[in-house]
Fold this protein.
Amino acid sequence: MSSKVPPPRGVYVPAVLFFDENEDFDIPAIKSHVLRLAKGGVTGILVQGSNGEAQHLSREERKTAIALTRQTLDQNGFKDTLVIAGTGAQSTRETKLFNQDAKEAGAAFALVLTPSTWAKNTTTDAIIRFHREVADASPIPTMVYNFPGVTAGLDLDSDIIFTLSAHPNIVGTKLSCGNIGKIQRLTSRLKSSEFAVFSGRSDAFVHGLNAGSAGLIAALVNLLPQQHVSLFRAWDEIKVSEAMEAQAKLGHADWAISKIGGVGGIKAVIVKNFGYGQPYVRGPLNAVDPDSLDKHQNYGILAELIAKEEEVQ
C-alpha cells in the first residue's frame, strides 16, 4: 500500500504578506490576515505562493513568514489548518535548502515552482530531473506548481505532471494555468488518495471540481474565504445550481482583481475593507492606493461580494 498522503480536499489561500513603509514585515497585519482567513474556514494557508512575494524575500524572511503563520494558527485554536510553503527557487540546490527550512518552520507540504531563468533551454527532461531531485531530498512532501504567467511561459503539460506523480514524495499539483482539460486528464488517471490536483484560479473553481479536482488554491480567497468555502460545500452537497451561481460571481470577481492590480490590488482591497495592513509591496510590483478603488470600473463586484462575506455561514 502506498504511503503517499496528499493535502486534503478543500479551499486553500496563497496569502499576501504585509509590509510597513520600510518594507519590513508588518507583524500585526500578517497575524490579522492569517486569523481572518482561518476564521473564514480555509483548509490551509500557502505561505510564499506568487501572492506572497516569495521572490522578494530573503531566506531568513521566508522562514520567518512560515513560522509566524504556523504559530499564529496554533496559538488561536487552528492547529488543524495546514501550512504549505512555496519553496521554488532558480536552482535545485537552493530549492532543497528552502524545503528544509520550510520543514523546520512548520510547513506540512512544499509547493515547488519550476525554475525559469533559462526558460528557453529548459527541456522536459530538465524539468522532470529538477522536481525529482528536489523531492528526493525534501523532508516534507512536495507539490508541482504550474504557473506559466510567472515562469516565462513554461507550462508543464499533463504528461510531465503524470510522470512526476509516480515519485513517492510528490503528492499533488497546483494548476494556475486554468486548463480544465489538464485537470481531468490527471484526475482520471491518478488516485485522489495519492495525488491531489488543485485548480489555481477562482474563475475555474467549479469547473475544476467537476473535472475531479481536490479543490482550490487561489488568490481571490484572500478577499472572500467564506464564499469560496460555501461554494465548495454546496458542490459536495450536490447543490449544483447554488454552486454555479456562486461561481459566476467569483468568476467576475477574479477578473476584477486582476484588472485592479494583482498582489497590490488585493492588499489595497484588504486595507480598505478589513481594517488592517498597509498597501506596500516590494518593487518592481506596483502598489495600489486604497482610496482609488471606488473610482475603478472593476471594483463594484468586489465591493458587492465583500459586503456579503460576513453573511455567509
Summary: The longest strand covers residues 170-175. The chain has a mean pLDDT of 96. The longest helix spans residues 240-260. Strands lie at 10-14, 44-47, 82-86, 109-113, 142-146, 170-175, 196-199, 215-217.
